[in-house]
Specification:
Arc Repressor Mutant, subunit A, two-stranded antiparallel sheet, disordered N terminus, single chain, six-stranded antiparallel sheet, about 30% strand, alpha+beta
Length: about 290
C-alpha cells in the first residue's frame, strides 16, 4: 500500500493486484502528485516501490490508458493526460468544430472517404428506404489541436442529394461540411431534430478500422447512434459517432414526471438555463 507521501510501506497484498495499483495511481493523479503532461515513473520503479511484478504494473497502466487518464509515447514513457474544458450538451446538435473552436482549441477535419453504397436491411429501415437503394456514406475524423476526438460515419439517402450536379460532387473532400449547412443550403432540407441512442463499446469492437489502429484494444468508446429528421418528419441523416474515453464527455438533461407539453417546455427551459452556467463536459487531449 502507499502512504500519503507516496512512499512504499509494504507489499500490496489483496487481490486483484492490478486493480489496487490502478487505484493508487489514479489517487495520486487526482491529488496532483502526478500533474497533467508529467511523466509517470517507469514500470520497474513502480513495481519495486509497490512490491508487485512488472506485469501487474503494466496491466494497471493498460487500464489507465484505456480510460484515457494517461497516454504512452513510444520510447519515451507514460504521461498524464491534460484536460481542456469544452462544453458539449447532448440536448443540442452542434457542429463539433464550433465546439472545439469555442474552447480555444484548433479544430480540424480529416476526410477519410465518401462513396455510394446499397442500403442493407438495417440501414434501409433506419432511413425509411428500400433495401438496395443507394445511400451516400461519408467517413471522417474531427480533431482538436491535431488530436482525434470524434470518429464519424454518416449515411444520407441518395434521394436527398439526387439533384446535385455533377452527381459525384458530393464525393469531394468535405463537400458535406458543415453538415447542417450542407442539408439546408445544398439539399434544401431543414433538419428539425435528431433522435439519438447511446451505448458503450471498446475500441476493438468498433466498426471503424482507424479506431483500432490508433487506440488500445480495450479503450472505452461512447457510441452515439442518431437519426436526423426534416420538417416533414422524414429521416435524411444517419450518423454514428465514436467518442474515445475521456476525450469528450457530455451533459444530458432528463425531465421528470408526465407533465403536459406546456409544463415540460417550461421545465426544459429552466434546465437549459441552469445547464449553461456549468462547464463540466470536456475534451481531454493527449499531449
Amino acid at each position: 500500500m502507499l502512504n500519503e507521501t507516496g512512499m512504499g510501506r509494504g507489499p500490496v497484498r489483496q487481490a486483484p493486484l492490478a486493480d489496487q495499483v490502478l487505484d493508487h495511481l489514479t489517487e495520486r493523479i487526482g491529488r496532483g502528485v502526478y500533474l497533467p503532461n508529467s511523466r509517470l515513473p517507469g514500470e520497474i520503479e513502480l513495481a519495486s516501490e509497490l512490491s508487485v511484478s512488472r506485469a501487474t504494473v503494466r496491466r494497471a497502466m493498460d487500464l489507465l490508458v484505456a480510460r484515457g487518464v494517461v497516454h504512452r509515447r513510444q520510447g519515451i514513457g507514460t504521461f498524464v493526460a491534460a484536460p481542456h474544458g469544452i462544453p458539449n450538451p447532448l440536448q443540442q446538435f452542434i457542429d463539433f468544430r464550433y465546439i472545439i473552436r469555442d474552447a480555444g482549441l484548433e479544430p480540424g477535419l480529416v476526410h477519410l472517404g465518401a462513396w455510394f453504397e446499397d442500403a442493407d436491411s438495417r440501414l434501409a429501415a433506419i432511413l425509411e428506404v428500400s433495401p438496395g437503394d443507394k445511400v451516400l456514406t461519408v467517413k471522417k475524423i474531427f480533431t482538436a489541436d491535431g488530436e482525434p476526438v470524434v470518429y464519424c460515419l454518416n449515411h444520407i439517402p441518395a434521394w436527398v442529394v439526387g439533384h446535385i450536379r455533377p452527381k459525384d460532387a458530393v464525393l469531394a473532400q468535405n463537400y458535406t461540411e458543415p453538415i447542417l449547412e450542407f442539408f439546408n443550403d445544398k439539399c434544401g432540407q431543414r433538419l428539425d431534430y435528431y433522435i439519438s441512442s447511446l451505448r458503450s463499446e471498446i475500441a476493438e469492437n468498433c466498426s471503424f478500422p482507424e479506431i483500432s489502429a490508433a487506440l488500445e484494444a480495450h479503450t472505452a468508446i461512447l457510441v452515439v447512434d442518431e437519426v436526423g429528421y426534416n420538417s416533414d418528419d422524414r429521416p435524411v441523416h444517419h450518423s454514428i459517432e465514436f467518442h474515445p474515453a475521456n476525450r469528450m464527455s457530455f451533459k444530458l438533461i432528463r425531465l421528470v414526471g408526465a407533465t403536459d407539453w406546456s409544463g415540460r417546455s417550461r421545465a426544459r427551459e429552466r434546465a437549459l438555463l441552469r445547464s449553461e452556467k456549468t462547464h463540466e463536459p470536456r475534451i481531454v487531449l493527449r499531449t
